[in-house]
């Protein structure tokens, strides 16, 4: 196990220089989902030459990269500096472990969203001693200026916004760089890099120490490999860390559902009747936010435990049919398919807003809305009117894709939790003695989760209570944690 240093007592709690959080897409989507809200310092016309056809070099002469425009580096550097302000845990790792270089000798291939927040991670890994090569896990999410800043500072990065499918795999191949170096670690988000290595460079699997995977999709793919007996190295599942789950699902959605709704509709939600489908982590966050602004919230649930939780939290649990005709907003958060179907949509009233916070765009039966008798009118970006023959209009947001990721942003602190966990997972895998981890998929030790949380407490000037020896013995835990058994539900 890595010896974690004590969390700092004092963090930099200053507001960011720009007085605002940087706008970036989440790190938790796979390449198939598009992002449209990431902030771009500069955009280029699609008629320009592909970055693959350009010869570019950093001011140092370094040229092992492929980005849109290296001249945007100074703009990207500002974005990274803003993100650093809200990612105190990674900055702490730099100052506390930077001198020890726990990742000295680590050669990390990374495939994640390339945003200001992931740039902070990549540069932290370098400070900790790792060499990095990076590609984007999504063809739309790269912040071009940030990629330029990484390249200018010497990171071998291969990414730009608006890649073709062919570009995407070309960049992954460049990131692997089999003829240039001997990589020994993988950090993946969505499993595309792992898949590519498995298909095109299987011999690398023999020399890699392990994989750290970020997303649900990637974990799925790893389990498939494992089932087929083809996973010949250990992998860490970051997706299921408690901190990541809670912050991505509950706390992040609690804030971003309102942001997504406001940015698209400008509607006031006080007094509005809202139906939230699913009372899991995401549903709980959405309900809490809407209740807080005075909306009247109804919930649909299939699971009696979650339904009872919704009752206890003061929400009416109903069937869709009971309220479809009266509600002003419908939000799906089930992760299921065909939760809102045509018969529900037919009953909804004029002006009803329909959107989805679940992973895929299967929750609302869109195909049933693409019929000859219904007219679609684009109102503004991410807002469509679907118009019935009698003039009734439904406001469909983001064409049924995740509302918050399509129309809003993910705050740096949420990404700070994820990226700090990724950094610790890489350190644990890299430094683990031979044989500690087998050819399997592992959850991070609870202590790591607790450590990541502890690293973020000073941001809020939160002071933990220290258990006495007697209290710790009474509870049957160690004074320094872990404080809960693995099965504990937070
Ligand atoms: N928007 C985001 O930023 C974000 C973040 C995290 C997760 N997600 C996605 O949101 C979805 C929900 O995630 P979660 O963590 O809340 O999952 P969860 O499993 O905790 O909750 C989903 C709930 O929906 C209920 N449900 C399933 N089918 C239903 C139906 N037909 N009608 C009513 N209720 C139904 C389930 O019983 C469950 O309680 C997933 O697709 C997840 O990938 C989105």
TrEMBL record:
Residues 22-35 have a biased composition (Low complexity). GO terms for biological process: one-carbon metabolic process; S-adenosylmethionine cycle. Residues 36-51 have a biased composition (Basic and acidic residues). SUPFAM superfamilies: Formate/glycerate dehydrogenase catalytic domain-like, NAD(P)-binding Rossmann-fold domains. Residues 249-410 form the S-adenosyl-L-homocysteine hydrolase NAD binding domain. Substrate binds at residues 115, 189, 214, 244, 248. PROSITE patterns: ADOHCYASE_1, ADOHCYASE_2. Residues 10-21 have a biased composition (Polar residues). Transmembrane segments: none annotated. GO terms for cellular component: cytosol. Residues 1-60 are annotated as: Disordered. Binds 1 NAD(+) per subunit. Belongs to the adenosylhomocysteinase family. NCBIfam families: PRK05476.2-3. This is S-adenosyl-L-homocysteine hydrolase NAD binding domain-containing protein. The lineage of its organism: Eukaryota, Metazoa, Chordata, Craniata, Vertebrata.
């Amino acid at each position: 196990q890595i010896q974690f240093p004590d969390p700092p007592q004092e963090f930099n709690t200053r507001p960011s220089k720009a007085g605002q959080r940087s706008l970036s897409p989440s790190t938790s989507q796979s390449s198939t989902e598009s992002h449209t809200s990431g902030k771009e310092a500069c955009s280029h016309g699609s008629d320009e030459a592909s970055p693959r056809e350009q010869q570019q070099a950093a001011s140092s002469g370094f040229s092992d990269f492929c980005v849109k425009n290296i001249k945007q580096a100074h703009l990207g550097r500002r974005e990274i500096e803003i993100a650093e302000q809200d990612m105190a845990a990674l900055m702490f790792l730099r100052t506390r472990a930077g001198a020890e270089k726990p990742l000295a000798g680590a050669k990390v291939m990374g495939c994640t969203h390339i945003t200001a927040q992931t740039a902070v991670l990549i540069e932290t890994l370098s400070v900790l001693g790792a060499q990095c090569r990076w590609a984007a896990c999504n063809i739309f999410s790269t912040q071009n200026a940030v990629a330029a800043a990484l390249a200018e500072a010497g990171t071998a990065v291969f990414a730009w916004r608006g890649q073709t499918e062919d570009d995407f795999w070309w960049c992954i191949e460049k990131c692997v760089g089999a003829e240039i170096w001997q990589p020994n670690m993988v950090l993946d988000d969505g499993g595309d890099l792992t898949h590519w290595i498995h298909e095109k460079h299987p011999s690398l699997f023999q020399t890699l120490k392990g994989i750290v995977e970020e997303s649900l999709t990637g974990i799925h793919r790893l389990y498939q490999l494992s089932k087929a007996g083809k996973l010949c190295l250990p992998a860490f599942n970051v997706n299921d860390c408690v901190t990541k789950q809670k912050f991505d699902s509950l706390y992040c959605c609690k804030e971003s559902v309102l942001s997504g709704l406001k940015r698209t509709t400008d509607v006031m939600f006080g007094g509005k009747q809202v139906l939230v489908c699913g009372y899991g982590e995401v549903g709980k966050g959405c309900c809490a936010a809407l209740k807080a602004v005075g909306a009247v919230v109804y919930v649909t649930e299939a699971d009696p435990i979650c339904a009872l939780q919704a009752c206890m939290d003061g929400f009416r649990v109903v069937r869709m049919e009971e309220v479809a005709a009266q509600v002003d907003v419908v939000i799906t958060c089930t992760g299921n398919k065909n939760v809102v179907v045509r018969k529900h949509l037919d009953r909804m009233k004029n002006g009803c807003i329909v959107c989805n916070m679940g992973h895929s765009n299967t929750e609302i039966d869109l195909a049933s809305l693409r019929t000859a008798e219904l007219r679609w009118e684009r109102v503004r970006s991410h807002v469509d009117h679907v118009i019935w023959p009698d003039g009734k209009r439904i406001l469909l947001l983001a064409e049924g894709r995740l509302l918050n990721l399509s129309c809003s942003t993910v705050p740096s602190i949420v990404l700070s939790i994820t990226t700090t966990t990724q950094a610790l997972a890489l350190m644990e895998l890299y430094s683990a003695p031979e044989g500690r981890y087998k050819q399997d998929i592992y959850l991070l030790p609870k202590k790591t989760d607790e450590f990541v949380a502890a690293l973020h407490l000073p941001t809020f000037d939160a002071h933990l209570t220290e258990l006495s020896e007697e209290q710790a013995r009474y509870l049957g835990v160690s004074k320094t944690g872990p404080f809960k058994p693995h099965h504990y539900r937070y």
